[in-house]
Amino acid sequence: MTYLAKNQEYAIYSLSFNYGQRHKYELNAAKKLAYRIGAAKHLVLNIELDKIGGSALTDNIDVPKTDKKPEHNNEIPVTYVPARNTIFLSYALAWAEVVGASHIFIGVNALDYSGYPDCRPEYIKAYEKMARLATKTGVEGTTKIKIVTPLINLTKAEIIKKGIALGIDYSLTHSCYDPSIDGKACGLCESCVLRKKGFLEAGVKDPTIYE
Amino acid sequence: MTYLAKNQEYAIYSLSFNYGQRHKYELNAAKKLAYRIGAAKHLVLNIELDKIGGSALTDNIDVPKTDKKPEHNNEIPVTYVPARNTIFLSYALAWAEVVGASHIFIGVNALDYSGYPDCRPEYIKAYEKMARLATKTGVEGTTKIKIVTPLINLTKAEIIKKGIALGIDYSLTHSCYDPSIDGKACGLCESCVLRKKGFLEAGVKDPTIYE
Q1: Quick one: pLDDT band at residue B73, thresholds 50, 70, 90?
Q2: Distance from C-alpha of B80 to C-alpha of B49, rounded to nearest angstrom
Q3: Is the sign of the CA dihedral B46, B50, B52, B53 positive or negative?
Q4: How many whole angstroms from its chain centre is CA A106?
Q5: Interface test with B, best of A51, A85, A129, A130 (most B CBs within 10 A)
Q6: Chain B residues touching chain A at CB-CB below 8 Å
Q7: Where do the domains of chain A lie, and which CATH numbers do they carry?
Q8: Helix (H, G, I), strand (E, B), or coil: what is residue A146?
Q9: Which ipTM did the prediction report?
Q10: What's the pLDDT score for residue B113?
C-alpha cells in the first residue's frame, strides 16, 4: 500500500506501532520497506495496547491455527484487536496535522477479513467525517483530511499482483500473527493461510519463509 | 467529571495518559482521585505523543504566560495537542469494548477553550457516530456507545460549583500546564488563569498551591 502511495508521488511519512503484538517482527519488515521506498520519515510508536488486552494478538489467548481458509460465520475472530484501527488512524491524524499532510493511507481490506468491524467502508467513511472536525484544518476549513483505502475491495490475489507490478519485494514483507523469534511464519494462522492462498491464486511464487 | 459519573452510579474505569506532557504531575492527581472515588480500575497508559510533537505541551515550545484571561481571536493556541482527544477517546473506546462499557465520559469544555477543535459538540457527535461503527457491538448492533460530555457547555465557575456539591476535594486536582517538579502550579499559564478565575467567580476558596 505504501508503494501505491509512493507511485502516486506522495511524500511518505510511514508509521508503525509496537502495540504489544505477538508479531513484533513486522516492525523490522516495515522499517526495511520504509528505507527501501525512501520514506521522508519512518516513525515507530510504542502504544501499550497489551495493557488493554482483549485479543489473541495482545493477550494471553491462543492464535487459532488451521490449514483451511477460516470460516467465521459472521463471528468476529479472536485476533480482532479492540478499536485498533481507530487508534492507529488517530495517531496518523495527529502526525498528518503536524507535518501538514492531507492524505492518510491505511491498508484495510474488507474482503478476506470481513469479520473486523474497523475494516468496513462505512466505518472508514465515518472516521473521515470525524477527522475533518477533529483538527485545526477542520476549524479553519482549509485542508480536508482524506482517508485512503486502496486495498479495501481487493482480493489478496489482486493485492499481490498489484504489488508485483509496482516492484515490491515480498520477501521483505511480513503477515504472520504468530511467528518464531527470528521471523519465520507459522503457516497456520489465519493471516498465513490467507497470504498463501493469495500467492497461489495470483500465480506468484511465495517467498515467505515458513517454520 | 468522574464524580458526576460516580454520582450516576456507573462503575468507574478511569484512564490517564502519560503522553509526554510537561504536566506529568496530573497523573499523580488522577491516581489519588481514582482511589478516593473507589474506581473499579485505574489505568495509566504511556502513549508517546511527544514523538509526534507539534504542541507547547509536548514539544520544545514555550507555554505562554499571562495574568489576564487569554484572548485567542479565533486562533488555536500553541497548547493545543494535535488530535489528542481523538487519541484519548480511541483508547477509551478500546477499553470500553474489553470491559463491556457503553458510556465514555470526557471532560471537554467548549466555553473557555473554544480554540480547541476537539472540544466542540459537532466533533464529539461525529466521534460517537464513528465509534458506533468501529467495534464489535457496532457490527452486532447491540450496545450503542455513548460519548458523555457533562461539562461541555458549562463555565469554569459552574463546573467548580457542581464539583463542590458532589464533595470534590479540589486540593487533589491539578490543572497547570507547566508546574514545578513537586506539582506547584505556575499561576500564569492559560489553564491556571482560567482555573483561578473559575474559583473567584464561583466564590469558592482556591486550594491550589502556586509557586
Answers
A1: low
A2: 12
A3: positive
A4: 6
A5: A130
A6: 43, 45-49, 51-54, 76, 80-87, 90-91, 93-95, 97-98, 117-118, 120, 122-123, 126-127, 129-131, 133-136, 138-139
A7: 2-202 (3.40.50.620)
A8: strand
A9: 0.92
A10: 62
Q: Which three cell numbers stand for residue A54?
A: 482483549
Amino acid identity, residue A193?
V
Report helix, strand and coil shares of chain A as percent, to nearest 5: 40, 10, 50
Give the per-residue pLDDT at B59: 85
Q: In terms of Cα–Cα distance, which of B95, B92, B130 is closest to A54?
A: B95
Identity (one letter) of the amino acid at A178? D
Q: How many residues appear in chain A?
A: 211
- pTM reported for the whole predicted model: 0.94
Give the span between the Cα atoms of B209 and A137, in whole angstroms: 37
Question: What are the start-end ranges of the E strands in chain A?
Answer: 13-18, 41-46, 103-105, 146-148
Say whether A127 sits in a helix, a strand or coil.
Answer: helix
Place of cell 509526534: B52
**Gap between the Cα atoms of A148 and A167, Å rounded:** 21
* Residue-wise pLDDT tens digits, B135-161: 988 777 777 899 999 999 999 999 999
Q: How far apart are CA B65 and CA B128, in angstroms?
A: 35
CA distance A25 to chain B (A): 20
